[in-house]
Design a protein that fits this description.
Helices cover about 10% and strands about 50% of the residues. Strand 10 and strand 11 form a beta hairpin. The chain is mostly beta strands. It contains 1 helix and 12 strands; from the N terminus they run E-E-E-E-E-E-E-E-E-E-E-E-H.
């Protein structure tokens, strides 16, 4: 994943072939991103909800929608974040109680890496920063790449905010 410009990313496979593009919505009342496939078709829309300053949340919708009926999953920054790490919890739309997360992202801000786990602690993806604006992401078999990229976008947005660039 490579940052192209403010809010925009390009995602390529290991051979450099385009997989996804992420478009940012600069003139929106909320932070909003749209993940497009290699042909420009909208796959998911990521929209930030500001609940409190300490508890950031993003909702991810099907296609270019932001309608409640199209909600796929939501992601929030964990309430207890260690000084050296960033944590995210992801809840599928059907998990309305949110008592336990469906997926968890544990990242090390200083080591510039993260691991994504299922609820039962199975690793499904890992990432490391290889250059200032370039990430290398390993997605395990039978895992939706668009889902992983959406989580990585949210994690990057939270880390950008940590640097005071938002």
């Amino acid at each position: 994943m490579t940052v192209l410009s403010e809010g925009n990313f390009g995602v390529t496979d290991s051979e450099g072939k385009a997989m996804f593009t992420v478009r940012g919505k600069l003139f929106s009342t909320r932070d909003r991103r749209v993940l497009l496939d290699a042909y420009g078709k909208p796959l998911v829309c990521l929209q930030q909800k500001i609940i409190t300053a300490a508890h950031r949340r993003w909702d991810i919708f099907k296609g270019d929608s932001a309608g409640h009926k199209d909600l796929l999953f939501s992601v929030r920054k964990t309430s207890i974040t260690q000084f050296f790490g960033t944590g995210l919890e992801s809840f599928m739309a059907r998990n309305t109680t949110e008592r336990s997360c469906d997926y968890e992202v544990k990242g090390s801000y200083f080591q510039k890496s993260c691991t994504i786990y299922t609820r039962n602690i199975t690793v499904i993806a890992q990432s490391i920063v290889v250059e200032k604006d370039s990430f290398e992401v390993t997605v395990y078999p039978n895992v939706d790449h668009a889902f992983i990229i959406a989580l990585m976008i949210v994690l990057d947005e939270i880390n950008v905010d940590r640097n005071g660039k938002d």
